[in-house]
Sequence to fold (962 residues):
Amino acid sequence: MLLLLVTFAPIVAAILIMIGFPARLTALAASLLTLLISAIIFLRFNALSGFQFVVTFPISPELGLNFTLGVDGLSLLMILLGAIVLVAAIWFTGEIEHHENAFYACLLLIGGGAIGAFASLNLFFFYAFHELALIPTFLLIGIWGTGNRRAAAWKVTIYLALGSIILLVGLIMLYRAVPATARSLDLRILQAEQIPASLQSSIYLVLLIGFGILISLVPFHTWAPEAYACAPAPAAMLHAGVLKKFGLYGLLRLALPLLPEGARQWSGILLVLLLANIIYIGLVTIAQRRLDWMLGYSSVMHMGYIFLGVASANILGTTGAAILMFAHGLSIALLFGITGEIRKRVPSLDFDAMGGLAKAMPLAAFAFGLGVFAAIGLPGFANFAAEIMVVFGAFRNGFDYQHFHIFQWATLLALWGVVISAVYMLRAYRRTFFGNSAKSELVITDIRSSFRVPIALLVAVSLLLGFFPQIAVNLLVPTFRHYFSATQ
Amino acid sequence: MISAPYLEVAVLVLGIVILLIESFSSKLDRRYLGYAALVGLTLIFLATFRVAPQTATSSAPFWDFYSADTTSLFFKRIALATTAGVIVMILDFAPLVATGIQGATPQSGLGEFFALPLFTCAGLMWMSSAIDFVLIFVSLELVTISFYVLVGFTRRNPASLEAAVKYLVLSAVATGFLVYGITWIFGATGETNLQKITTALSRPGLEQNAALFGAVLVIIALGFKIAAVPFHIWVADVYQGAPTPVTAYLSVGSKAAGFVVLLRVLDPFLLLPQMQTLLVAIAVLTLIYGNLAALPQTNVKRLLAYSSIAHAGYLLVAVVSFSGRAVAFYLVAYLLMTLLSFAVLILVSQPGGDQLESFAGLSQRSPFLAFAMLVAMASLAGVPFTAGFLGKFLVFDAAIATHHFGLVVVAIVTVGAGFYYYFKVVRAIYWDAPSSSTDKIIVSPLTRAALIALIAGTFVLGVYPQPIFDALAR
Fold:
């Protein structure tokens, strides 16, 4: 029951707004309700006993299709992330000039779709809920975006549609790979099955490409920076913060437990690609001259670390990856939110044209600084705790005292990414908020003081997990232990 | 309980009655004929649920021609529902008929426009029951001949006339292929009944190549009906030129009946590997051509014409994968979304024409129509929670289950292309500012109800397909 509420509160609110309810009020109420209920679920969740809060409605016995919702540690963490960022994104939405109700409805659909995907235990709805965001994204960027918004909207839509359809084929292959007697779209039944090793390799590859496009794995990443740079800030917060994590969630949820053999075979290629995400995209990020593009590229780059945790395929690494997904969602949402506010006040987000904003916008500068420190993994923020786990998990993989394995080399190289991200983040911070102010005739006001609430929410949760990562680890370890029980 | 053949008889009687009323009462507002046709079709649709199951032992020779199995009943319902939808569209289209005909009275010609689709509908229903080449041929001709008239109905409109001539000539050629193919099959097997052909084909010493040659000719003729590449040349021009309700009828009714005949005719032949290869080739060509040709279109009617070719491709994938269930479900989904898009097109294009520009800023002129078109386009593109997605899901599932991975790869690419041209319409509706007229568009209550029913159907079947599966299984 509670899960149904969490999933459908945003979607129902979106429908209500379209038929004429007051937009901002309804959206805020629905998102706060979602956050409240997911917090209740979190408090009542018992990490040691599998899937909980399961609700199921049979739809088609012939296809093995049920509408089933349920959470384990991993999905609960992601639902919490979705609820927190949804509240923050809606709070950060300022005055919308035209079609205000449609804007809020689109935001709620993206948020509700992501939460629904995380809560679904049936492959069909897992996929379908994620696609719910497709049209709202197209409209949000195309109508309310900035810059070269139309091209960006087309690009993101075609890329994500193509990635999704490849993913769909992968999911159907997975469904068809189990023997006919046990064939089901239900995750719990699939997880009990062994998939023949001969089929695992090809299925994993298809899933990796499908999910990879959604996560912006190099070389499928080119949609992401442009889309995030052009999207209105709340859309970028939700998309980069929550929706993009769907692909990683899918890899952790489906690919690793069901296809261990396939994951092992492709881990070399995956390591090369994720290093490209970290090093190559990291260097590209340094070269960016605009704040929004820099943030867009940085969110692509940080996916590399999460991939490293996924690729390590052990409990430590995947736990780190899951916490990093959460932590990155919070920090990137904060950064995009503040950037959106800056965009409204200055004529251009070029680093050359900005500077000295801290004087006019002390609150924004403070919040952005916290976001920057979280993003580069300063100890005390959740990102740090997660990155440590990812790095240790990856380093431990195949470790042997005589010589380094490919995983150790990859970890060593990936560590340089920390330096790279410190360079571009701190430089962006300095050039935006400090130094000489470029335009003096402009009257710049600070962000509204009510924005302290979402900022405090995002920062507090990140700090809480940074100092007490055990909260999340206790949720995740039993889950991952269950996933890997068959393989390790 | 009633016997299945009475359904067609009822439709024919309905058509004749409407024709008679139209000729003997000159004062009557012709739109009442449309309402009468709607009521009649609804009653007949309800009657299909009261049809007595076919007795297996009935020995009357009639049942060698005519089957009343669940598949045929299912497709009869599709034909009836499509026809009802088309009649609703004709009611909206009525003002344009007057300008396209210019008879003695403002409503002259309108009465026949309501009667002719009923005769087509009877033909479509016979097609879905036909299990003998003789009945297949006769019912196909009934459909085609009434379409000749319908396509050229607005006879003062040159585009409509051009479409009619093109349709007439190419249709006649296709008929020639069909008859020629039937003769070859009859010559090889000595039978016209499909079941008897199946047993005859497995007889030792049979000249299989002759039968195969005949089957290929029949496929060419049916390929024309379902608009498969390379038999699609007529599609774009005819769809664009014909009156819009007729275009919708052609792309849904004609295609559905074509596919049920294709499924029945292929049944004896599909196990032969040559036939498989041929159909895979046709499917690949249809998918690629339909989707690529749709990409640059700026006329919505023409775009929908190419999209109908593209959807024939997905249906062929399901045919090659032996999945009757996927074909049937996809056709229902296709019916819903195509009728929806054409119904909106008729309302939007009356002031501004069929160009994409007349959709610009529709979200401000009529939020309801904008939403209806959004649902139609999302479903055609295959966005989840719509019937179109579940149809694609079943098609992909069938193709993967039968290891047609080549087809799957082609279909992935074409689905991606599909998102582009369907979202072009969405873009015009929501992004662009209204170009010419900013008037609100008035939607009549009947049309509004029909649109809401189609939208609801699209969403319900998108998550709850079981009613369709049940109807097929019973």
